[in-house]
Amino acid sequence: MSENYVEKLEEVKHDHTSGAWVVAQKAIDCLEALAKEKSNVEYSELIAEVERVIGEILKAQPNMSQLTNLFNALLFTVEQETSNDPVVLCRKIVGEATRFEEHTRNAVKKVAKFGAELIANDSVILTHSNSSTVLEIIKKAHEDGKAFQVILSESRPVCEGRERAKELSKLGIPTLYLIDAAICMGIEQADIVMLGADSVSENALVNKIGTKAICLMAREAVVPCYAACESSKFMPKKLVPKKEPVRDPKQVWDNPPSETTIENYYFDETPLELFTGIITEEGVLTPTELGSKIRAHKMNPKLIQMLK
After folding, report:
1. Contacts of 191 (CB under 8 A, 6+ apart)
2. Which CATH number is 5-109+301-306 given?
């Protein structure tokens, strides 16, 4: 028996190890299951439940702009539907979710192509965390016949670098795995830094904690540093959460001394000016070019209210 949408909702809310695209796919599965299970309820009840689910996911995953853009499209779909027929609305919700998924998949393929072109044969790539977009870039360069080594960070507190190491090992790509505190040693060996993104605003990028430090060290070492993200991760600065909630301290230290306070965070914010370029489905953009595109993005008023 397949999971119902409530179970899928909990899975989305508690996934803090997967990349943004994997989490977005889980959200799409949740919404599609909701549409199938709620097509026979009152129209107003359906809309209320869709908005409740969206709100819960946004609260649990505040920095995932891909989710924000998915929900932005869905809320516009709900507002534009005038039939008052729950069956019709459910079909449109599924259709919009499918369209978003297909658009993003195609965008990731284009990002992978542009990113792979930046990887030279016999080079060393350094990456951080478990970005599915960066993985697609590495796969494409590998498929193109390029030989290279990948340096991975541990990516505490949940150590998702381990999952990336397993994936690259299956592909036969040699890797060097470093604890986060030793990442400077990795940058000194690297020819290029490739990082993912959970959201990108007009002037900054939100990604796994440690990203800003890596970018600063790369600049100091004169190593080109790129962020890879498709347009579904663009989000106006005013909608980026002001402060990330403190995460479970036990992920850092299960039993610290009584006078010790643990602050555990998953994300940090990095100025776009620290990146050599941002790899998108339209090519490698400068911070200025990227900012112009994000400022032109239209956001649903109800979504803006949910994010406050």
Report:
1. 120, 123, 124, 125, 223, 224
2. 1.20.120.420
Q: Which residue has the tokens 């555990």?
A: 264
Residue type, 109: K
Q: Quote the tokens at residue 296.
A: 């032109």
Q: Domain 112-298 belongs to what architecture?
A: 3-Layer(aba) Sandwich (3.40)
Report the predicted TM-score, pTM, of the whole model to 2 decimal places: 0.81
**DSSP state, residue 223:** -
Residue 98, C-beta contacts closer than 8 angstroms, at least 6 positions apart: 28
The residue ranges of every structural domain in the chain are: 5-109+301-306, 112-298
pLDDT tens, residue order, the chain (308 aa): 346 999 999 999 999 878 777 888 999 999 999 999 998 999 999 999 999 999 999 988 876 788 889 999 999 999 999 899 999 999 999 999 999 989 988 999 999 999 999 999 999 999 999 998 999 999 999 999 999 999 999 999 999 999 999 999 999 999 999 999 999 999 999 999 999 998 899 999 999 999 999 999 999 999 999 999 999 889 888 777 777 888 999 999 999 999 999 999 999 999 999 999 999 999 999 988 998 888 888 888 988 888 87
d(CA 108, CA 298): 22
Q: How far apart are CA 8 and CA 2, in angstroms?
A: 10
